[in-house]
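Entry for the shared binder. Reason: the reviewer on the internal report wants the predicted structure included alongside the sequence.
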Amino acid sequence: MESTQELNFLAALLPLAGVVFIIASGVILLNQHFRKNLMQQKLQQEETKNRHNQEMLRSSIETQEAERKRIAGDLHDELGAVLSIARMHLIQLEEQSSMDAGNLVPALQNIRALTESALASMRRISHELMPPQLEAFGIIKTLEALAGRINNTNGVHVDVTAGDLPTLSWSVQLGLYRICLELITNTIKHAKATQIDIGIDVGPQGLIVGYHDNGTGLNTGLIAGLGTNNLQARVSALSGKIVPGATDDVGFNIKLNIPLSP
């Protein structure tokens, strides 16, 4: 009799246990689904945040470049014109006063020398703010021209090599010019190098920019200091990546991967 009751009890308990099992399984599955959705939402939010930060960075750099272009134009068109007119008048005064005795002619010659120095500085600053040859001739010719000026003045020899490049957007060309200028400036200021090699080519994922100098290098790679914050910001604005060179290389070695259309 007791055995029959136990069997009846178990028979009644089994459906209940099955229901409990199904409910428990459903709760577990719902919990896993909820966690998966929560993780996906967090990833989406992080991706959206990163895109937003990148767009803000790109917008900030574009605003800076537009302001550079405006200042360069003002320097060239307004200040350059005024200095040129002043220089012309000084030359006329020199010629008119050449027969006079005293210190007038040397003084005028000194003023003209100062004016010509101001003109040269104005042209240099204007070209650094917005190199006119970049828009006219492209990034490679501009870097070659920059290398030529450095090779004539700084005791550092710069070689620029390039593969068969496609037509690059203005933002990529300008960003690449600023990046190379930043690297060259760091080398000249800090590395005590005598040779700089810059190579630009196209790979499966976009532009490959290689930079190497034979200077003292950086012990910690491209981590902090020496203007690298600006460098990383400009590379990020182009949706690019920085690949530091091997630590056992002589000098400083770095590679940049930059999409053709950031």
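Summary line for the report: The chain has a mean pLDDT of 75.
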